[in-house]
Design goal:
Structural class: alpha+beta
Number of strands: 6
Radius of gyration: 43 Å
Strand order of the largest sheet: 1-4-5
Largest sheet: 3 strands, antiparallel
Length: 188
Amino acid sequence: MSDERTNEERPAAAADESVEQSGADQETAGSAEAAELAEKLAELNDRYLRLAAEFDNYRKRRADRDRQQRLSAFRELLESVLPAVDDLHRAVEHEAQDAETFRAGLHAVIDKLDHALANLGVERLKPLGEDFDPQLHECLATDDQTDAEPGTVTAVFADGYRLGDVLLRPAKVVIAQQSDENPTHADE
């Protein structure tokens, strides 16, 4: 009987060894897979960090370029306006012999400033005599003592300015209003 038991025990021991062997194989395969995943994770993390650093550098370069463009535009504006400012300083330092000479000097400075603004693309809006346009004009008062058509600009306190399609400042105006004493034909 002891031979029988030994024969029976042998296949069971072999089966236990086989299970242990396949468990070790699975453990080895699992650790290899884990190592592979850890390596892939490290690679992806490195790529992420490099991409984040590249984006941060791009953002800094873009901010610096934007700052340089603003400075360049501001410098261009100042370079075009400074000659007129110099003329104003000279006018204050030298007293004119008469009011007409002083007035002519001021007109020359104004012309320089207008020319500088025009070179920068700024358009001066002179609405006197035009129909009131709330997109371009700011009505400060109405005038019912005029023969102008109602809604017509009769006086300008300050011209408006536009840069391309952008209104920098609306013209500040007075518009004609229909007087109660002077009704139009449509009211009769």
